[in-house]
Amino acid sequence: NKIKSMFRKGEPIINGWLQIPSSFSAEVMANQGWDSLTIDMQHGVIDYPNALQMLQAISTTQTTPLARVNWNEPGQIMKILDAGCYGIICPMVSNRKEAENFVNACLYPPLGYRSFGPIRGLIYGGPDYADFADEEILKLAMIETSEALKNLEDIMTTKKLDGIYIGPADLSLAIGEDPGFDRPEDTLAYNEILRILEAAKKRNLLAGIHNGSVSYAKKMISKGFDLVTI
Q1: Through-space distance between the first and last CA atoms of the chain, rounded to whole angstroms
Q2: How far is CA 138 from CA 174, 180, 229, in A?
Q3: How many CB atoms lie within 10 A of CB 44?
């Protein structure tokens, strides 16, 4: 997993975002130089057959394929991993139990309860997929609810969790501010973003964030974020 390798080396990860259900647009995006591309199955208009074809298009390049699932639901997580996705961004993770359920759905027994059947994962990852999948799959929990802010320490100490991902719009709503990206420094959301980042850094967790502009993404990299989505 190139993304995990970049994180270990301290290299910033530039992530693109796919919401259009098109293998052609995925192929075009994958050839633009992104380090990773995330297939958005939460707010995009993408279903499983679309996602499968998009993963096939992405795999013609060196871009690492990720997916944001629409909920912390084991069946959906396992199925998109079987399709060859190399990382999961899971929305609305609010406590330790939810974080554990998410991580365990990504791990084969005895560490977790992922069912074995990586139909396309074996093609993308190779015949030794099962030997390395537990360590290579990137597992990012989204911190974006008021409950998650209260349970930050418990969530971040979840075993085998690789990192966190901040959704600034939902995070802003959770603390009573208007939703949006690129939060100004005089907002409560901005202060919470920095607090989440600091907590992740203390535990050597990958920290990612959604951005609305290139300039703000650069600012977040300078603050210490490891992965920025533009």
Answers
A1: 21
A2: 26, 26, 15
A3: 19
Percent of the chain whose pLDDT exceeds 70: 100
Cα separation, 125 vs 84, in Å, equals 7
What's the pLDDT at 42? 98
Mean pLDDT of 120-141: 97
- Peptide bond before residue 21 is cis, with ω within 30 degrees of 0: no
* Residue 204: Cβ within 10 Å count: 9
Q: How far apart are CA 67 and CA 186, in angstroms?
A: 32
Where helices occur in the chain by DSSP H, the ranges are: 2-9, 23-30, 48-58, 74-82, 96-106, 121-125, 129-136, 146-150, 152-156, 168-174, 188-202, 214-223
Other CB atoms within a 10 A radius of the CB of residue 12 amount to 17
**Helix and strand tally (H, E) in the chain?**
12, 8
Give pLDDT, residue 111: 98
* pLDDT for 64: 98
Global pTM value: 0.97
Which amino acids are annotated catalytic? 43
